[in-house]
C-alpha cells in the first residue's frame, strides 16, 4: 500500500513557530553578574601576617578587647583607642581590625595566656598579627615575597612622591623635621644574664607583687595573710620590675611569702612567674614563731607590734635556714613589705640567725615593687665587693 502524500498546502506560520526549539533562559543567569562580582571580591581577599611594634610606656592601655579562648592566639574583638588606636591612626594600611589575630608577642607564641601576660608586663610589644586584607595597589607590593609586610619607619620616607598611588605612605602627612620622635628603649632588648645559682632573691608576694591597699588581714601561726583571697591579681608593673631584675642578674627566686603555706596559692604564683620566663628555685621552710617575744609589757603587750616583731624574726630564721642548706649562694636580697630589720637587735636575734638589714629591699605595700627597686637590687647583687654570708654579731 502506497504511503499517503503530504498535503500540498503550506503549513501555517503559527504551527511553524511551534516547531522551532525553544531556548529557555535560566533564572540563575540574572544573578550571574552579582555572583561573579562576589567571587572576584573574595579572590581579592588574601591572608597576610605583618609585624606591629607598640610602646606601652606612653599609652595608658593597649586599647583592645582580646579573646584567648582558642589557647594559642589572641582574637581582636574591638579596638578602642590606646596604643592600638594610635597605631591604626599612623598606619591606616596596616591597621589592626576586628577579627585579626595576634599570633606572637615578643618571644611568646602558641600560648595565649603567656602572650596576655607579656602584654600586661612588657613596656615594648613586638607583635605578629594575622589578618585577611583586600588587595590593592599598595598591598600587592607589600604582599609579594615572603608574605610578611615589612614596616618602614616614617622618618626614613623623606622623598615621598605626591602622586604615586603605590606608595605605602601616600596620603599621610609628611614628617615634621623639627619634631623628632625618639623611640623608647626596650629594657629587655639586651640578652638576659645567664642563670647564676650564687645569687638568690627571697620573694614576698603580698605587698610586693600584689597591693595590700584596704585589704582585711587575718593571723595564721604568727603570720599575717590577706582575708580577701578572691582577688589575687598580681601587679603587671611589679611583675615587670621583677622580670627586669632577673633579666639583669640571672638570680634565682626563692618564695618566702606566706603563699607557700598553700599549695594552690603557691602553684598560682609559680604559674604567673613561669609564664614570664621566671623559674622558682624553691621555698623557705615554715618555722614556728617565738612566743617569748613581745613589744611593751608582758602583762599588756602591743598586739600589732608584737605580731610584726614575731613575724619578722620568724622570717629571718626561715631565710637563714634556707641559706644554710644552699652554701653556693654568695649574694642575696629579700624583697619584702615587712621591715625585717626590727628583728636585727641583739636582744631579739638568735646567735645563728643572719641580719636582714643589709640585704632588705623594703617595698611600700600600697605601691608594690617598682623599677627603682629592681635597679637598686641589681646593683646590690652585682656588686664586685664580696659580702659576707653572715654579718658580724653585735
TrEMBL record:
Keywords noted in UniProt: Kinase, Transferase
A Pfam family (short name) is HAD_SAK_2
Renumbered residue ranges of the record's region Disordered: 150-184
Output this protein's name: Casein kinase II subunit beta (CK II beta)
Task: Say if the entry is tagged with keyword Protease.
Answer: no
**Molecular function (GO) terms listed?**
kinase activity
Q: Where is the composition biased (Basic and acidic residues)?
A: 153-163
Q: Does the keyword Kinase apply?
A: yes
Q: Where's the PDZ domain?
A: 51-106
